[in-house]
Amino acid sequence: MRKPRILYVSQEITPYLSQGPIADICRYLPQGIQERGKEIRTFMPRFGVVNERRNQLHEVIRLSGMNLIIGENDHPLIIKVASIQNARMQVYFIDNEEYFQRKFVFRDNKNKFYKDNEDRTIFFCRGVMETVKKLGWAPDIIHCHGWMTSLIPMYVKSIYKEHPLFKNSKVVFSVYDHDLDEEFSDMFVKKIRMDGVPADELKLYKDSSISTLNAAAIHRSDAIIRVSETLNPALEKLLLKSSKRVLQHDDNYIETYSGFYDELMEEESVLAN
After folding, report:
1. 57-103-192 Cα angle (round to 5)
2. DSSP of 222-249, one letter per residue?
3. At what angle do helices 253-272 and 21-35 cross, to 10 degrees?
4. Which secondary structure element, helix H or strand E, spans residue 14, and what is its range?
5. Using CA atoms, how far apart are residues 259 and 256, in angstroms rounded to an integer?
6. Which residues touch 99 (CB under 8 Å, ≥6 apart)?
7. What is the strand order of the sheet 5-10 is part of?
8. Mean pLDDT per 10-residue segment, the chain (273 residues)
9. The domain 5-43+118-272 is classified under which CATH number: 3.40.50.720, 3.40.50.2000, 3.30.160.70, 2.170.270.10?
10. First and final C-alpha spacing in the chain
11. Burial of 239 by CB count in 10 Å (0-12 exposed, 13-18 middle, 19+ buried)?
């Protein structure tokens, strides 16, 4: 019997990029879960602020080479990997010269939100899914952290739902207080529609705000983890009304999350039988 498999997808991980609580959680959670007998894979974007030489990133040739279509253009997908030696943990990086080779993360040197953040988000989420397919690694749990991962729950439950690697995957979305009132362009829904997303899924994106992206991820996930004590009021209301399982983050989160994963996988096992 194989070990349970947990896929972590995060927009930041210490020591590569640390802008808030996501980074530390996604550094120590995968390690702790691995030490508790589960198999893990971890992904994040290869932002330009990540120092390749210092962190010893190298390209994984067998995983790189495909192109992803965003809008009407092809974009090469490059996969890199680095190891956190004392954790015996690898981190996979989704890279593309046009999207990620910059000195800043989400805002430019004038603090303006990058206009192509919507394209970068689509590219990252699709890049993770396609790379996991290439790995041939079927996750039991897909745990997403950060608004940049918010399309993954919808992708798993729509265009990838019949794929053998993902059809039994449970999706967990951690909700953080990003305090972002930014919006993507009016073209965002058209871009994800071109990815083959069913029309019913597009109704979740009544607008293209970051708050709406998070709300859509909550709708399409199997379970939610509330990390921040205070949240955007719309998300707060949504969680209160939700019939989904909602777990409150705590100081003993590694043990708590491990038990939570086990419960979700047991539910899937019962349904399968």
Report:
1. 85
2. SEEEE--SS--HHHHHHHHH--SEEEE-
3. 60
4. none
5. 5
6. 75, 116, 119, 120, 123
7. 58-59, 78-84, 89-95, 39-45, 5-10, 141-145, 170-175, 223-226, 245-248
8. 94 93 96 96 96 93 91 91 92 96 92 94 97 97 97 96 95 86 89 85 88 93 93 88 92 96 83 52
9. 3.40.50.2000
10. 17
11. middle
Q: Is the peptide bond before 15 cis (omega within 30 degrees of 0)?
A: yes
**Chain-centre distance for alpha carbon 58:** 21
How many CB atoms lie under 10 A from the CB of residue 62? 9
Q: What is the pLDDT of residue 273?
A: 45
Report d(CA 150, CA 213) in Å as an integer: 6
Q: State the Cα–Cα distance between residues 43 and 149, nearest whole angstrom.
A: 10
Are the C-beta atoms of residues 63 and 83 closer than 8 Å to each other?
no
Q: Are 141 and 264 in contact (CB under 8 A)?
A: yes
Query: Nearest-CA neighbor of 139 among 261, 4, 260?
Result: 4
pTM score of the predicted model: 0.95
Closest residue by Cα to residue 140 from 266, 273, 6, 271: 6
Residue identified by tokens 């805002």 is: 107
